[in-house]
Amino acid sequence: MANYIDKSMAITWGGKSHKIDITNELCNALESNGINLFAMSVELSRGGVPKFFLMGDLITKLLVLGAQIDVSQDDVMQVLTQEPADSVALFKFCNAFMGKVFPASDDSVKKPVKAKAKK
């Protein structure tokens, strides 16, 4: 199966870096588990303060589904609320993740080839 996204990125959790492969399958799994990726992308791109618990839910599901780490949303919310540097780092991670899921202009995304008009 062709994969529209086919990228990866690392997230730091528990003092270790974990690779998350960003694939169609991961995005389908996230959306099947209640994460509306497009709505989250719009929310994060607005700037200001994101919906904190939605961001925590996204991070939790990425850790569980993408990095196969057994973690609860309570664990993630504890990290998000207790250390400002960790909160900022995870917010930046979410923005970077959304940039990979919905690239504005990315040469690595295969674009359809348009046929040239005959003269």
Structure description:
By secondary structure, the protein is mainly alpha-helical. The protein has helices spanning 24-32, 37-45, 52-67, 73-82, 84-101, and strands at residues 7-13, 16-22. It has one domain. The protein contains five helices and two strands, in the order ββααααα. It has a two-stranded antiparallel sheet with strand order 1-2. The chain is globular and about 65 Å long.
Features:
119 residues, mainly alpha, 2 strands, 52% helix
Write the layout of secondary structure elements.
Blueprint: E1 7-13, E2 16-22, H1 24-32, H2 37-45, H3 52-67, H4 73-82, H5 84-101
Antiparallel strand pairs: 1-2
Helix pairs in contact: 2-5, 3-4, 4-5
Taking all residues together, what is the mean pLDDT?
Answer: 84
The portion of residues forming beta strands comes to 5-15%
Task: Describe the global form.
Answer: globular
Query: Cα distance, first to last residue?
Result: 36 Å
Counted beta strands? 2
